[in-house]
Design a protein that fits this description.
- The chain is an alpha/beta fold.
- Helices cover 30% and strands 17% of the residues.
- Helix 8 links the parallel strand 7 and strand 8.
- The longest helix has 17 residues.
- The protein is globular and about 50 Å long.
- It starts with 7 loop residues before the first strand and ends with a helix.
Length: 294
């Protein structure tokens, strides 16, 4: 296909095989034919937030950031493709415009279904495009929680996902008990997604499980937090960074040492993806760090 027909947008791709539902979908953007991308060009894979339940915050929330990155020559020269994914949701019967129904199993799940879907989506992309560990897994808000949960193991999936080169959590929730100490009004949201067993909250918190059995280190663990964020405060990023620093990675087979990195952003919680500039800036920094490793 002629290069003038790019970027190419491959939307609504099912990733769960015959069992795929309307939320088991991926959007893919190819800036150029994959055959003409640089060797080891990176895949940027985005996981949205939304309190594990909000249908209005979905994979399309990445599109603004994606367009900015498509016009960033530095990032574009090092990137093979962009992808954003949806996953099954916890109930939200009080949503203003799209309330969930008890009759819809796709929007009535709890942990670990969210992370299982994320891993299934990544596994599908790895199988189809064979990029192995050549990707950056990016998540915002509860998506930030999910991308760091991806480092905690395979969550019951029959086959392991090849871990990413880098994980970037943007304004994520990494320590659920700490989050509820700071935001006790959010307990109903946590119970909705994880149930009432506090031991599950702890076992699902990446900051409380760094280095535990099943933990798999990427080469870069990056956190981006906004000083202006009133929904997820800086304490979450600091708790995750401290946990990482308390458990430095052993060198991998290639002799690498995990790099832990914190970046400060500006803007309110959802402004980071609504405007896209700060989320794009964080991704650009992650790409810049890892591009020398591939």
């Amino acid at each position: 296909m002629a290069s003038e027909n790019y970027p190419q947008y491959l939307n609504d791709i099912p990733y769960a095989g015959p069992t795929s539902n309307y939320l088991n979908k991926i959007d893919i953007c190819l800036p150029r034919p994959l055959s003409t991308s640089r060797p080891n060009g990176l895949w940027i894979i985005f996981v949205h937030g939304g309190d594990w339940r909000d249908p209005s915050i979905d994979r399309k929330t990445f599109h603004k950031t994606q367009e900015l990155l498509l016009n960033n020559p530095t990032v574009l020269s090092k990137t093979a493709a962009f992808a954003s994914l949806d996953y099954r949701l916890s109930p939200y019967p009080s949503h203003d415009s799209n309330p969930s129904s008890l009759s819809d199993p796709v929007r009535n799940v709890q942990h670990p279904t969210h992370i299982q879907d994320v891993l299934a989506a990544v596994q599908h992309l790895q199988k189809e495009y064979n990029f192995q560990d050549g990707y950056i897994l990016v998540g915002h808000s509860t998506g930030g929680s999910l991308v760091y949960q991806a480092a905690m193991g395979n969550w019951g999936l029959p086959h392991s996902v090849i871990p990413p080169l880098a994980i970037l959590g943007v304004s994520g929730i990494y320590d659920i008990p700490l989050f509820l100490t700071d935001h006790p009004d959010q307990e109903s949201v946590i119970k909705n997604a994880f149930g009432s067993d506090t031991s599950v909250w702890e076992s699902a918190s990446p900051a409380l499980n760094v280095g535990a059995k099943g933990w798999r280190d990427p080469q870069l663990t990056m956190l981006a937090q906004s000083k202006d964020d009133t929904e997820v405060d800086e304490g979450q990023g600091q708790a995750m960074l401290q946990a990482l620093e308390d458990h430095p990675a052993d060198c991998g087979e290639g002799g690498w040492q995990r790099k832990d990195h914190l970046m400060i952003l500006r803007g309110q919680h959802n402004e980071l993806w609504e405007k896209g500039t700060e989320l794009a800036r964080a991704i650009e920094e992650a790409v810049g760090i890892v591009s020398g490793w591939v």
